[in-house]
Design a protein that fits this description.
Layout (H helix, E strand, L loop, with lengths): L3 H5 L25 E3 L14 E2 L20 E9 L6 E7 L5 H5 L6 E5 L2 E3 L40 E7 L4 E10 L15 H5 L12 E7 L30 E2 L1
Parallel strand pairs: 7-10
Antiparallel strand pairs: 1-9, 2-3, 3-8, 4-7, 4-9, 5-6, 5-8
């Protein structure tokens, strides 16, 4: 585990930018229909389409969580709707294109996400056989430094993909994405949350501070989101080969 000072250096002003890009697999591909929201949508046969936050276009799911304080929760609400005649499963899918998913999952118990009412804390995807890092692994004991009176919670981390809803034709759903720093974080004010991520994670990955990116993606109801027949929107494993021991991930059904 990281020292208290190293972990504290990860906190400060959090800028959490959530972005979406849209693409639709049409009938000529011979694949399941799938849509990731963000722009124009078209199709000639059945379609799988989502509206997100009113369909305002590119950047409509960008949220700024800067200036966050210890113990203060900041929340973004995502509204989704199914305008089609087909049922669909909707997923929140994080990318690691800039290393920020790995960086967030290096915060340990100092950071906590709540997505759609489910809590993900003790954020660590470090997986080494025989050591903590698998979701639900009991850790026990207490934290260190200014948090030395805080009991440790079981190991957990923010999943790569989270199913947020199954929507029937014309149905809608809202869910929140919340982030919070632990109350006992008291120093390193104003520093970037990811400024020490590269050294802390190790491996060969180069990480510079940036946004945490995700997409809101719709699939035909009941279809495996990892199926290659979903085309470009299929949920594929993240490439974590450069992140040392921080190489574990999972999909939350």
């Amino acid at each position: 585990m990281l020292s208290s000072r190293k972990r504290a250096a990860l906190f400060g002003g959090l800028v959490l930018t959530l972005t979406t890009v849209i693409a639709l697999a049409v009938a000529t591909t011979g694949a399941y229909f799938t849509d990731s929201h963000g722009g124009q949508i078209s199709g000639t046969n059945g379609t799988v389409t989502i509206n997100a936050n009113g369909g305002a276009g590119a950047g409509q799911l960008d949220f700024d969580f800067s200036g966050i304080l210890p113990g203060q929760a900041k929340t973004a609400t995502i509204n989704i709707g199914n305008p089609t005649a087909n049922s669909e499963d909707v997923w929140l899918v994080f990318s690691n294109d800039n290393g920020m998913w790995s960086a967030v999952n290096n915060l340990g118990q100092y950071g906590k996400f709540i997505v759609g009412g489910y809590t993900y804390d003790n954020l660590s995807n470090k997986y080494v056989p025989g050591t903590p890092g698998v979701a639900g692994t009991p850790t026990g004991g207490y934290m260190s430094g200014s948090c030395s009176t805080v009991p440790r919670v079981d190991a957990n981390y923010l999943p790569h993909a989270i199913k947020v809803a199954t929507l029937g034709s014309g149905a809608s759903h809202s869910f929140n994405v919340t982030f919070q720093y632990i109350e006992c974080m008291t120093d390193h004010q104003g520093e970037d949350i990811f400024n020490a991520a590269e050294n802390d994670i190790g491996g060969t990955a180069t990480i510079t501070p940036g946004p945490l990116n995700f997409s809101v993606v719709a699939f035909q109801a009941g279809v495996d989101p990892t199926s290659p027949f979903n085309g470009v929107n299929a949920i594929v494993p993240l490439d974590l080969s450069g992140y040392g021991a921080y190489n574990h991930q999972y999909i939350q059904p």
